[in-house]
Specification:
single chain, 213 residues, alpha+beta, three-stranded mixed beta sheet, 7 helices, 3 strands, 14% strand, elongated
């Protein structure tokens, strides 16, 4: 697209045979836009970068068709033959930009990284709501949360501090309830919760505190 557009920009040529071609371009653009929206929704539901890539591919066709219409209308009313190849160059650069973004995001999906800010906010809000729902006297504290995402999978590890005089059965039952609440709030999340008394910190936390200046 870039090569042809630059050639046409250097040697402008009148547009020909626009009727059926323009009509088919607008019609197919509408179908592509509708399908792209469906693919984006499915991509969010299934956290699939492949579905998102397919949707963005269709959206580049939509933007291409939009540029065609704008270019033709602009050339018709202004007589500026250079406007059509200039818009085509913009379309080509947009395709390159979308491609680079998808390649980068796909490569990051192969690496472990922390969960995004939106998902972390949901996890923290779920923890706060869970603690607030417990009867008076059930003091809970959460800390040392570590999260990561690997492809479509998401993981969260954290400590739940409970009163030291609780039975193991009571603490474990509450932990199971919390794990289920987190997995309901964030579909596909795998949670590991370590139980600790309120008066005790994990050894890693103690070492970190001792190393602070």
């Amino acid at each position: 697209i870039l090569w042809v557009s630059v050639q046409r920009l250097l040697s402008p040529q009148p547009l020909e045979q626009l009727g059926w071609g323009l009509a088919l371009s607008v019609f197919s653009s509408g179908l592509n836009a509708a399908l792209a929206v469906m693919l984006f929704r499915a991509a969010r539901t299934h956290r699939s970068i492949a579905l998102e890539a397919d949707g963005r591919h269709l959206m580049t066709d939509v933007w291409t068709s939009a540029a065609v219409v704008v270019g033709i209308v602009g050339v018709h009313f202004s007589g500026w033959l250079w406007l059509d190849p200039l818009l085509a160059i913009g379309v080509a650069l947009n395709i390159v930009r979308e491609g680079v973004k998808l390649v980068w995001r796909s490569s990051q999906g192969l690496m472990d990284e922390a969960l995004d800010a939106e998902t972390l906010a949901i996890v923290r809000a779920t923890l706060d709501a869970f603690a607030a729902r417990q009867p008076d006297g059930r003091r809970l504290r959460f800390d040392d949360m570590v999260t990561r995402g690997a492809g479509q999978r998401r993981f969260a590890d954290l400590h739940m501090h409970v009163p030291g005089d609780w039975t193991l059965q009571s603490a474990a039952s509450l932990r199971d309830e919390l794990e289920q609440a987190l997995m309901d709030a964030v579909p596909g999340l795998r949670v590991t919760i370590q139980l600790l008394p309120l008066t005790m910190e994990a050894r890693a936390t103690q070492i970190a505190e001792e190393q602070k200046p």
